[in-house]
Amino acid sequence: MNLDIRDILDDWPYEPGQVTARKIRGHDGKDKIQMRLDLGLLQMEATGRPDGLRPHGFESLLDYHEHCLEQHRLHRSGEDDYELDSQACESLRTESVMFYHRYLAEYVLEDFEGVERDTIRNLRLMDFCLRYAKEPLDKYILEQYRPYVLMMRARARSRKALRDGDPKAAMSAVRRGIHEIQALRSFGREGMSDGSGEIAVLQAMAKDIEAQIPVDPIRKLRHALAEAVRQENYEEAAAIRDRINQAVAEKRVRDSQETKPKGA
């Protein structure tokens, strides 16, 4: 059997600065995700732990340590003395990199549910190390990446909402992501400034989404009313005010019909 993968790499050129990924069906009949790299490629399982292993019989090392914590709580009536040593934390960080590579590939493949699943999982791992690591360095070493993971989760949620035709939900996801990053207090931060690269990405995304949200006709009329008053065009202002009153009344009628119980 020839183990040289040169032909595969030649058929799939590497593009510097871009994440290139594809989904294939493996010999075991399961989906795999491949990511092209400069010196080769990564192949990951589409679900479970990306390398396909089951540490201690669990889906992931994080799941195993969470199980150990639950057992500790049962036998020690609490968790005050539960700790992760440096070796355990290093192994968990190594596992988190696997999921990082996968959610990058999933984003390119527009598998936004997968991105959300894996970013939530890595945030859970960060929380676990922050809470239970014995050494201060192990508590905070992953925190530098938290803004990025929050950003990717927000991007995935927003892109999914856009795909579903709901730009308002997409905007809400982006704004929530910005708020979460700004509210960070870990790793010596008193909150992320608007100069954060992650926030800048989300703000640019919000600007693009805003153009897709239909303008509220009543708000548009109110802007026109303010402009007419500013220009002292009071006759036009009065006409716009009448249109606003009519639009508000019609909206109340529509809202009452939408909330009216069926059969009433």
Describe this structure in words.
- By secondary structure, this protein is mainly α.
- Among the domains are: 156-214; 217-257, no CATH class.
- Helix content is 60%, strand content 7%.
- It has helices at residues 6-10, 61-76, 86-108, 112-132, 136-140, 146-163, 167-182, 197-210, 217-230, 234-259, and strands spanning 20-25, 31-37, 40-45.
- The protein has a 3-stranded antiparallel β-sheet, covered by helices on one side.
- Strand 2 (31-37) and strand 3 form a beta hairpin.
- Helix 3 packs antiparallel against helix 4 (112-132) and helix 7 (167-182) runs antiparallel to helix 8.
- The radius of gyration is 26 Å and the shape is extended.
- The mean pLDDT is 90.
Helix amount:
55-70%
Distance between the termini: 74 Å
Rg value: 26 Å
Structural class: mainly alpha
Provide the low-confidence segments as ranges. Answer: none
